[in-house]
Amino acid sequence: MHNTLQKSTTYLCRHFVHVVMLLQLMSKLAPLVGRDLTERCLMPRFAELCTDAHFHVRKVCAANFGDLCAVVGTENTEVYLVSADHEKLESIGDHDEGFNCEK
Q: What's the pTM value of the predicted model, to 2 decimals?
């Protein structure tokens, strides 16, 4: 039983590290790829992670929130990220299939 718990904890730690790295990468890429690609490719996944069930994921989102918001502007921040209305998120990109950057 102890071994199973240890494996589960190790998996969660690795998963969290990957999510943290993803969020940091997204926030650093946003100024480089510009507003259009950020809105279509990065914002849907970022907004989804901002509503994650795990507190630590949401905490990392909050720490990286400003970088992404600076690129997409005040209006898009208020509409898509602050409200986190998933129907609106679907209108800017299909986040169920990963990054949809072919538009």
A: 0.67
